[in-house]
Protein backbone atom coordinates (compact mmCIF):
# COMPACT_ATOMS: atom_id res chain seq x y z
CA UNK A 1 0.00 0.00 0.00
CA UNK A 2 1.57 3.29 -1.11
CA UNK A 3 1.01 6.72 0.39
CA UNK A 4 -1.64 7.68 -2.14
CA UNK A 5 -3.65 4.60 -1.17
CA UNK A 6 -3.14 5.42 2.52
CA UNK A 7 -4.47 8.94 1.95
CA UNK A 8 -7.50 7.62 0.08
CA UNK A 9 -8.24 5.00 2.73
CA UNK A 10 -7.98 7.64 5.43
CA UNK A 11 -10.57 9.76 3.62
CA UNK A 12 -12.90 6.78 3.21
CA UNK A 13 -12.71 5.85 6.89
CA UNK A 14 -13.11 9.32 8.43
CA UNK A 15 -16.79 8.83 9.26
CA UNK A 16 -16.65 5.10 10.01
CA UNK A 17 -16.96 3.51 13.44
CA UNK A 18 -13.88 2.04 15.08
CA UNK A 19 -15.27 -1.46 14.50
CA UNK A 20 -15.74 -0.80 10.78
CA UNK A 21 -12.23 0.63 10.53
CA UNK A 22 -10.86 -2.58 12.02
CA UNK A 23 -13.05 -4.77 9.81
CA UNK A 24 -11.61 -2.94 6.81
CA UNK A 25 -7.91 -3.04 7.72
CA UNK A 26 -7.49 -6.44 9.40
CA UNK A 27 -8.09 -8.51 6.22
CA UNK A 28 -5.79 -6.25 4.19
CA UNK A 29 -2.73 -7.13 6.25
CA UNK A 30 -3.56 -10.56 7.69
CA UNK A 31 -0.83 -11.74 10.07
CA UNK A 32 1.33 -8.72 9.17
CA UNK A 33 -0.73 -6.40 11.39
CA UNK A 34 -0.93 -6.29 15.19
CA UNK A 35 -2.30 -4.20 18.02
CA UNK A 36 0.44 -2.62 20.10
CA UNK A 37 -1.14 -2.65 23.56
CA UNK A 38 0.04 -0.84 26.66
CA UNK A 39 -2.95 -2.40 28.47
CA UNK A 40 -4.41 1.09 28.85
CA UNK A 41 -8.17 1.67 28.63
CA UNK A 42 -8.08 2.50 24.92
CA UNK A 43 -6.00 -0.57 24.09
CA UNK A 44 -8.36 -2.77 26.08
CA UNK A 45 -11.26 -1.43 24.02
CA UNK A 46 -9.38 -2.27 20.84
CA UNK A 47 -8.46 -5.72 22.16
CA UNK A 48 -12.16 -6.44 22.70
CA UNK A 49 -13.13 -5.15 19.27
CA UNK A 50 -10.32 -6.87 17.37
CA UNK A 51 -10.72 -10.30 18.94
CA UNK A 52 -14.48 -10.24 18.33
CA UNK A 53 -13.74 -9.59 14.65
CA UNK A 54 -10.77 -11.94 14.35
CA UNK A 55 -10.06 -14.25 17.34
CA UNK A 56 -6.62 -15.12 15.95
CA UNK A 57 -5.50 -11.49 15.55
CA UNK A 58 -2.10 -10.53 16.92
CA UNK A 59 -1.77 -8.41 20.05
CA UNK A 60 1.56 -7.60 21.64
CA UNK A 61 2.87 -5.59 24.57
CA UNK A 62 6.22 -4.40 25.87
CA UNK A 63 7.38 -5.53 29.31
CA UNK A 64 9.89 -2.88 30.32
CA UNK A 65 10.71 -4.58 33.61
CA UNK A 66 9.33 -1.59 35.56
CA UNK A 67 5.57 -2.08 35.14
CA UNK A 68 2.98 -1.95 37.93
CA UNK A 69 1.83 -5.26 39.46
CA UNK A 70 -1.69 -4.30 38.38
CA UNK A 71 -0.54 -4.23 34.76
CA UNK A 72 0.85 -7.76 34.94
CA UNK A 73 -2.41 -8.89 36.51
CA UNK A 74 -4.33 -7.31 33.62
CA UNK A 75 -2.22 -9.16 31.05
CA UNK A 76 -3.24 -12.40 32.71
CA UNK A 77 -6.93 -11.48 33.08
CA UNK A 78 -7.14 -10.30 29.46
CA UNK A 79 -5.46 -13.43 28.10
CA UNK A 80 -7.84 -15.65 30.05
CA UNK A 81 -11.02 -13.75 29.16
CA UNK A 82 -10.36 -13.73 25.43
CA UNK A 83 -8.56 -17.07 25.31
CA UNK A 84 -5.67 -15.45 23.52
CA UNK A 85 -1.92 -15.25 23.96
CA UNK A 86 -0.58 -11.72 24.12
CA UNK A 87 2.91 -11.55 22.63
CA UNK A 88 5.37 -10.02 25.09
CA UNK A 89 8.61 -8.33 24.05
CA UNK A 90 11.36 -7.65 26.58
CA UNK A 91 14.33 -5.28 26.44
CA UNK A 92 17.85 -6.55 25.83
CA UNK A 93 19.06 -7.48 29.33
CA UNK A 94 22.68 -6.58 28.57
CA UNK A 95 21.75 -3.05 27.49
CA UNK A 96 19.56 -2.61 30.57
CA UNK A 97 22.36 -3.82 32.84
CA UNK A 98 24.90 -1.50 31.20
CA UNK A 99 22.57 1.50 31.44
CA UNK A 100 21.66 0.90 35.09
CA UNK A 101 25.22 0.14 36.17
CA UNK A 102 26.52 3.28 34.46
CA UNK A 103 23.75 5.76 35.28
CA UNK A 104 21.82 4.35 38.24
CA UNK A 105 18.55 2.53 38.73
CA UNK A 106 16.43 5.72 38.56
CA UNK A 107 18.47 7.62 35.99
CA UNK A 108 15.33 9.00 34.31
CA UNK A 109 14.71 11.55 37.07
CA UNK A 110 18.03 13.29 36.41
CA UNK A 111 17.48 14.56 32.87
CA UNK A 112 15.25 14.26 29.82
CA UNK A 113 18.22 12.78 27.99
CA UNK A 114 18.50 9.99 30.55
CA UNK A 115 14.76 9.39 30.53
CA UNK A 116 14.64 9.11 26.76
CA UNK A 117 17.65 6.78 26.80
CA UNK A 118 15.81 4.55 29.28
CA UNK A 119 12.65 4.61 27.15
CA UNK A 120 14.70 3.77 24.09
CA UNK A 121 16.26 0.67 25.62
CA UNK A 122 13.16 -0.54 27.45
CA UNK A 123 10.55 0.35 24.82
CA UNK A 124 11.79 1.48 21.42
CA UNK A 125 14.26 -1.31 20.72
CA UNK A 126 11.80 -4.09 21.69
CA UNK A 127 9.13 -2.35 19.60
CA UNK A 128 11.41 -2.25 16.59
CA UNK A 129 12.06 -5.97 17.04
CA UNK A 130 8.31 -6.59 17.06
CA UNK A 131 7.90 -4.54 13.89
CA UNK A 132 10.17 -6.82 11.86
CA UNK A 133 7.17 -9.12 11.33
CA UNK A 134 4.66 -6.37 10.54
CA UNK A 135 3.55 -4.07 7.75
CA UNK A 136 1.05 -2.15 9.90
CA UNK A 137 0.29 -1.56 13.55
CA UNK A 138 -2.83 -0.54 15.44
CA UNK A 139 -2.68 1.99 18.29
CA UNK A 140 -5.06 3.35 20.89
CA UNK A 141 -4.12 6.99 20.35
CA UNK A 142 -6.81 9.64 20.70
CA UNK A 143 -6.46 13.23 19.51
CA UNK A 144 -7.76 14.62 22.81
CA UNK A 145 -5.20 12.78 24.98
CA UNK A 146 -2.38 15.32 24.74
CA UNK A 147 -1.08 18.31 22.80
CA UNK A 148 1.42 15.96 21.13
CA UNK A 149 -1.46 13.95 19.62
CA UNK A 150 -3.89 16.59 18.39
CA UNK A 151 -3.20 16.12 14.68
CA UNK A 152 -3.34 12.34 14.34
CA UNK A 153 -5.20 10.71 11.46
CA UNK A 154 -7.04 7.40 11.43
CA UNK A 155 -4.57 5.99 8.88
CA UNK A 156 -1.02 7.36 8.86
CA UNK A 157 2.34 6.57 7.35
CA UNK A 158 4.69 6.03 10.32
CA UNK A 159 7.86 7.58 8.95
CA UNK A 160 9.94 6.62 11.98
CA UNK A 161 9.22 2.92 11.69
CA UNK A 162 8.42 2.50 8.01
CA UNK A 163 4.96 1.08 8.70
CA UNK A 164 1.33 1.99 8.30
CA UNK A 165 -0.15 3.15 11.59
CA UNK A 166 -3.86 2.85 12.34
CA UNK A 167 -5.61 4.86 15.05
CA UNK A 168 -9.25 3.62 15.13
CA UNK A 169 -10.07 5.69 18.24
CA UNK A 170 -8.55 8.93 16.93
CA UNK A 171 -11.83 10.83 17.28
CA UNK A 172 -13.09 9.17 20.46
CA UNK A 173 -13.51 11.02 23.76
CA UNK A 174 -12.56 9.61 27.15
CA UNK A 175 -16.28 9.17 27.87
CA UNK A 176 -16.61 7.07 24.69
CA UNK A 177 -13.84 4.78 25.93
CA UNK A 178 -15.35 4.21 29.36
CA UNK A 179 -18.86 3.77 28.02
CA UNK A 180 -17.58 0.99 25.79
CA UNK A 181 -15.71 -0.66 28.66
CA UNK A 182 -18.80 -0.63 30.87
CA UNK A 183 -21.19 -1.76 28.14
CA UNK A 184 -19.01 -4.65 26.98
CA UNK A 185 -17.55 -5.56 30.39
CA UNK A 186 -14.00 -5.13 29.18
CA UNK A 187 -11.28 -5.88 31.78
CA UNK A 188 -9.24 -2.81 32.69
CA UNK A 189 -6.37 -1.80 34.94
CA UNK A 190 -7.62 -1.24 38.51
CA UNK A 191 -5.24 1.73 38.80
CA UNK A 192 -7.71 3.66 36.64
CA UNK A 193 -10.04 3.65 39.65
CA UNK A 194 -7.29 5.23 41.76
CA UNK A 195 -6.65 8.34 39.69
CA UNK A 196 -4.33 6.91 37.01
CA UNK A 197 -5.84 7.73 33.58
CA UNK A 198 -2.57 6.99 31.78
CA UNK A 199 -0.35 4.15 33.01
CA UNK A 200 3.22 3.40 32.03
CA UNK A 201 6.24 2.31 34.04
CA UNK A 202 5.76 2.48 37.80
CA UNK A 203 8.56 4.99 38.60
CA UNK A 204 7.38 7.34 35.84
CA UNK A 205 3.64 7.35 36.54
CA UNK A 206 1.60 8.97 39.31
CA UNK A 207 -2.06 9.61 39.95
CA UNK A 208 -3.38 12.97 38.75
CA UNK A 209 -5.22 15.66 40.68
CA UNK A 210 -8.71 16.93 39.75
CA UNK A 211 -8.47 19.29 36.79
CA UNK A 212 -5.08 18.06 35.61
CA UNK A 213 -4.44 16.92 32.04
CA UNK A 214 -5.03 13.21 31.41
CA UNK A 215 -1.32 12.61 30.88
CA UNK A 216 -0.14 14.88 33.69
CA UNK A 217 0.86 11.82 35.71
CA UNK A 218 3.30 10.59 33.04
CA UNK A 219 6.86 11.93 33.51
CA UNK A 220 5.28 14.63 35.66
CA UNK A 221 8.62 16.40 36.19
CA UNK A 222 8.82 17.32 32.46
CA UNK A 223 7.11 19.91 30.26
CA UNK A 224 3.96 18.72 28.43
CA UNK A 225 5.59 18.99 24.98
CA UNK A 226 8.28 16.42 25.87
CA UNK A 227 5.95 13.81 27.34
CA UNK A 228 6.36 11.05 24.77
CA UNK A 229 8.63 8.02 25.06
CA UNK A 230 9.32 7.84 21.34
CA UNK A 231 6.77 5.16 20.47
CA UNK A 232 4.61 7.86 18.88
CA UNK A 233 7.23 10.37 17.81
CA UNK A 234 5.76 13.07 15.58
Could you characterize what this model shows?
- It is a single chain.
- With 234 residues, the chain is an alpha/beta fold.
- It has one domain: Rossmann fold, CATH 3.40.50.620.
- The chain has 7 helices and 6 strands, in the order ααβαβαβααβββα.
- The protein has helices at residues 3-13, 18-29, 41-53, 69-82, 93-103, 112-131, 174-184, and strands spanning 33-36, 58-62, 87-89, 136-138, 155-158, 163-166.
- Helix 3 (41-53) packs across helix 7 (174-184) and helix 5 (93-103) runs antiparallel to helix 6 (112-131).
CATH class: Alpha Beta
Rg (C-alpha, Å):
17 Å
The assigned CATH architecture is 3-Layer(aba) Sandwich
Order of helices and strands: HHEHEHEHHEEEH
Main beta sheet, described? Answer: 6 strands, mixed
Q: Which overall shape is indicated by the principal axes computed on the Cα atoms?
A: globular
Q: Which stretches are low in confidence, meaning pLDDT under 50 for 5 or more residues running?
A: none
Q: Give the CATH topology.
A: Rossmann fold
Instruction: State which percent range the strand residues make up.
Output: 5-15%
Provide a count of the helices: 7
The oligomeric status of these chains comes to: single chain
The largest beta-sheet arranges its strands as: 3-2-1-4-6-5
Amino acid sequence: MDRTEIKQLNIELQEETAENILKRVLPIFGDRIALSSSLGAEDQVLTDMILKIEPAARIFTLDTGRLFPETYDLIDRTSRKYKTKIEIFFPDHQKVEEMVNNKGINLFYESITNRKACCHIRKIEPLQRAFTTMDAWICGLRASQAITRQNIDIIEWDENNGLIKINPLAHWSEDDVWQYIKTHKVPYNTLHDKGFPSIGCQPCTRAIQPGEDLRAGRWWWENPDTKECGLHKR
